[in-house]
Write a structure and sequence with these properties.
This protein is α+β, with helices and mostly antiparallel strands and 113 residues long. It has one domain. The chain has four helices and seven strands. A five-stranded antiparallel β-sheet has the order 6-5-4-3-7. It has a two-stranded antiparallel ribbon with strand order 1-2. A hairpin with a 2-residue loop joins strand 5 and strand 6. The longest helix has 12 residues.
């Protein structure tokens, strides 16, 4: 069995003039680098172009995105994925488990499309 390879996706390679330059890259698997929905969410986050996003009306809107393979945005700062029944947020060095805080339950902190 081959080890899973991870690569860096540099924001400057994805967007010509990003509005948000931090983090400068994300470490993703080769499979995730081909995921158009994830790349679209990263582009939206770093260009601050949320025209296709809106605040959800209920939690079912957030989970509908997860089940459709798309990625909601949390606090206009993190891309959220749902893997193995766990919500995770994307950081520079990969996916991290999302801590459940009071802010997670506020609909105004989420953006869905």
């Amino acid at each position: 069995m081959f080890p899973k390879t991870k690569e860096r996706l540099y924001i400057n390679d994805l967007l010509e003039d990003p509005a948000v330059t931090t983090p400068p890259y994300y470490t993703l698997s080769s499979y995730q680098l081909k995921n158009e929905m994830l790349l679209s969410a990263i582009e939206s986050l770093h260009s601050f172009d949320f025209r296709y996003y809106e605040n959800p009306k209920s939690y079912s809107d957030i989970f509908a995105m997860f089940h459709n393979g798309t990625f909601p945005i949390y606090k206009e700062k993190y891309i959220i994925g749902y893997f193995g029944s766990k919500m995770m947020y994307l950081q520079s060095n990969g996916w991290k488990g999302m801590p459940v805080t009071e802010d997670v339950f506020k609909m105004e902190n989420w953006l869905v499309c």
